[in-house]
């Protein structure tokens, strides 16, 4: 057993999740693209995913935020900072965090969105902890991951549309002294082209130059998501174990000391390979991809919420939240729940 370092970290005071009511099964996808329940289950581990019936991202986020606030036993006015991780905002401006603030009545809080794709919740925890560490007026942070991936999913592309679901989850975070905490975050922009959803190109009134400046990015159908599945798969299986190991090393513990690892839920085969490379059993890996598919930044906290509800993660447990995704980005956060 290694010696855990004690630092000023985070206290997770409350958690909450929300997924839309509508569910799409693998059989439903077999009706719209050339696929089968057998292929999707074997290649990804996904059986169902929740999909919005028009509810926007901020609505999902506000629902999860309200659940986390109730669980924490605080009132919305107690929140000093709202951080929302999303790659599927409803507007360029206002931010999703501002819309959620309005919905929940967190009067007087700061509000900011971050875009780190599927790694967003880990980056958000790291950012929250740094605000809390400063002891400069931010004592309570509401961190939300909210994604309506169905709005950038190309439902004619069978290799990607079967992967994604919509949903949201939130944590209320406070400062905690003398506790286990470490973060290991990274990015590799040379892999930017492997996971892409395009924003607007400039068509300003004075433009005459029709040349595109993003020559190394793939052509996409409008804003629809496109990926190089094999490259992402290789990146994920390589970086996931590294992020866990590095975060554990910084915290002064070994991966086997962890009670639970909550990985980004992209593909069960990625998680199985990572567990093997880490030398930990699959019992330690929290996996609910069969229920929700890949919900990008929301996948880690949604899985965390289900693991707590089912007693798989308890107060005092040492947990690692490990993400990888667009950017490319990767991250591991170790803390005591
Ligand atoms: N149903 C049936 N067949 C499908 C299919 C589907 N939904 N999607 C692809 N196929 C076919 C392909 O066309 C290919 O057919 P071919 O051999 O005749 O050309 C065959 O299945 C194998 O395709 P391949 O792309 O090699 O499958 P794969 O085992 O690599 O699985 C992914 C594809 C996308 C599931 C996998 O690469 C993956 O999960 N990558 C990571 C993606 C990811 O996690 N993205 C988000 C990161 S945050």
Structure description:
- With 337 residues, the chain is α/β, with parallel strands linked by helices.
- The chain folds into 2 domains: 172 residues, 3-Layer(aba) Sandwich (Peroxisomal Thiolase, Chain A, domain 1); 136 residues, Peroxisomal Thiolase, Chain A, domain 1, CATH 3.40.47.10.
- Helices cover 31% and strands 24% of the residues.
- The chain is built from 10 helices and 13 strands.
- The strands form 4 sheets. Strands 1-7-6-4-5 form a 5-stranded mixed beta sheet, with helices on both faces.
- α3 crosses α4 and α7 crosses α8.
- The two termini are 19 Å apart.
- Coenzyme A (COA) binds next to α2, α6 and α7.
What structural keywords apply?
337 residues, Peroxisomal Thiolase, Chain A, domain 1, binds coenzyme A, 10 helices, four-stranded mixed β-sheet, alpha/beta
As for the number of domains, it is 2
Classified by CATH, the class of the largest domain is: Alpha Beta
Instruction: Please compute the radius of gyration using only Cα atoms.
Output: 19 Å
How many helical stretches? Answer: 10
Question: Spans with pLDDT under 50 lasting ≥5 residues?
Answer: none
> So what's the overall shape?
globular
The name of the CATH superfamily of the largest domain reads: Thiolase/Chalcone synthase
Give the distance, in angstroms, between the N- and C-terminal Cα atoms: 19 Å
The SSE string, one letter per element, is: EEHHEHEHEHEHEEEEHEHHHEE
- What is the CATH topology assignment of the largest domain? Peroxisomal Thiolase, Chain A, domain 1
Mean of residue pLDDT?
Answer: 96
> How large a portion of the residues is in β-strands, by DSSP E?
15-25%
Q: What proportion of the residues is helical, as a percent range?
A: 25-40%
| Ligands bound to this protein structure | coenzyme A
CATH architecture of the largest domain: 3-Layer(aba) Sandwich
Number of strands: 13
In the sheet with the most strands, the strands line up as 1-7-6-4-5
Structural class: alpha/beta
Biggest sheet, in brief?
5 strands, mixed
């Amino acid at each position: 057993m290694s010696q855990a370092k004690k630092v000023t970290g985070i206290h997770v005071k409350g958690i909450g999740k929300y997924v839309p009511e509508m569910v799409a099964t693998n059989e439903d996808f077999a009706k719209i693209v050339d696929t089968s329940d057998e292929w999707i289950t074997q290649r990804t581990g996904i059986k169902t995913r929740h999909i919005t019936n028009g509810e926007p991202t901020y609505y999902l986020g506000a629902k999860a935020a309200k659940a986390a606030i109730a669980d924490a036993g605080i009132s919305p006015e107690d929140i000093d900072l709202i951080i929302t991780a999303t790659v599927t905002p409803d507007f360029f401006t206002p931010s999703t965090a501002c819309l959620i603030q309005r919905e929940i009545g967190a009067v007087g809080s700061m509000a900011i969105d971050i875009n780190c794709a599927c790694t967003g919740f880990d980056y958000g925890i790291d950012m929250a902890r740094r605000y809390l560490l400063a002891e400069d007026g931010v004592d309570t942070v509401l961190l939300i991951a909210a994604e309506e991936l169905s709005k950038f999913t190309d439902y004619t592309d069978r290799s990607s549309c079967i992967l994604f679901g919509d949903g949201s989850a939130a944590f209320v975070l406070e400062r905690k002294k003398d506790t286990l905490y470490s973060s290991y975050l990274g990015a590799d922009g040379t892999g930017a082209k492997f996971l892409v959803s395009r924003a607007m190109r400039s068509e300003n009134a004075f433009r005459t130059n029709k040349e595109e400046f993003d020559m190394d990015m793939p052509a996409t159908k409008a804003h629809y998501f496109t990926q190089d599945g094999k490259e992402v798969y290789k990146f994920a299986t390589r970086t996931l174990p590294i992020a866990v190991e590095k975060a554990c090393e910084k915290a002064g513990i070994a991966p086997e000391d962890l009670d639970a690892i909550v990985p980004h839920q992209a593909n069960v085969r990625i998680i199985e390979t990572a567990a093997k490379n880490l030398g930990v059993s699959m019992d330690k890996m929290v996996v609910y991809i069969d229920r929700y598919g890949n919900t990008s930044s929301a996948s880690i906290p949604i899985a965390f919420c289900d693991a707590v509800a089912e007693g798989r993660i308890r107060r005092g447990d040492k947990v690692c939240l490990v993400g990888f995704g667009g950017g490319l980005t990767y991250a591991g956060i170790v803390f005591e729940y």
